[in-house]
Structures are given as C-alpha cells and as structure tokens.
Amino acid sequence: MAGELRTEFLMDLHATLNEQSYPVGDAGRGTRIVVTVSDGTFEGPHLRGMIEPVGGDWLVRRTDDVVQLDVRAILRTDDGATIQMTVGGYRHQQSLGPLGELPEGEIYFRTQPVFETGDERYAWLNRIVAIGVGMPADPGSVSYRIYAVL
Fold first, then answer.
1. 68 in Cβ contact with 90 (< 8 Å)
2. How many CB atoms lie within 10 A of CB 15?
3. In the Cβ-directed half-sphere of 18, how many Cα atoms lie within 13 Å?
4. Which of 21, 45, 51, 71 is least surrounded by Cβ atoms within 10 Å, i.e. has the fewest?
5. Mean pLDDT by 10-residue block, N- to C-terminus, for the chain (150 residues)?
6. Phi-psi region for residue 69, left (φ > 0), alpha (ψ -120 to 50) or beta?
7. pLDDT for position 124
8. Domains along the chain?
C-alpha cells in the first residue's frame, strides 16, 4: 500500500571503542566528547566486513541530557570495497512527549546512517535511506541493528 513504511534488515554492526576519549568541553550547546573506534565488524545478507580503525563519534551531551551522535566510520567489505558511513542520531532515557513514555530502564537509541561508496557493487547503498537501533553492548563497545527503509 502506498504510504506504508517498510524496512528490510541491512546489517548488524559492532564496534570496539578505544579507552582514550577526548573531552573538548562545552562550546555553548553541550559538552563535546570524541571517542574513537579501534575496530569492529558488520554483517548482513548483502554485505559483511570490518570497520577500519580511523573513525569515531564526535558526540555532544546536550544540556537536556540527550546525547547527539555524529559518527564517522570506514567499512571495508570482505570483497574489498570501501564504504564511508556517517551516522547521526540520539540516545536518551526521556519522554517522547505525545508519542509516549519509554519503558522503565529502556534507552531511546536511534540513528540515521548514510552511506557513500564509489564501488559499483555497493552503489545501491548511495541511494537508500537507513535507520538504526542501538543494541545492548559490552562496556567499551557499541552495536547497531541497521535497516533499509523501502
């Protein structure tokens, strides 16, 4: 039916974070902290591979206690393609206003990945809208389940 939102599972992504973080401080809209990635993996029905150790999250903990994400990562597929992934999103435990309250202890952790690649085998990623849901992860790591919006 036209107007219906459909999704298809794209991949699970798991990244290990470096212990060292880089607090930048408050520049007027919240406290910025940079956390870099040491490695990781991603896997789904159409792509899989490793996360290169060159990215990270330039996050801002806003004054309303919402963490605003700004993630940059380079994905290297098992067959040698390079894909840049840029991710925005929010993480918090606050009310969703008229949309409802979060269940006790649940974290709202939603992302909007955008992909860029010059590799023709994965050029379809340049043309999709994706959404991600943060999943529970071990300390020092982060995990997302990512879906393509159809």
1. yes
2. 25
3. 15
4. 45
5. 88 95 90 95 98 95 94 98 98 91 89 98 98 90 96
6. beta
7. 98
8. 7-149 (2.40.160.20)
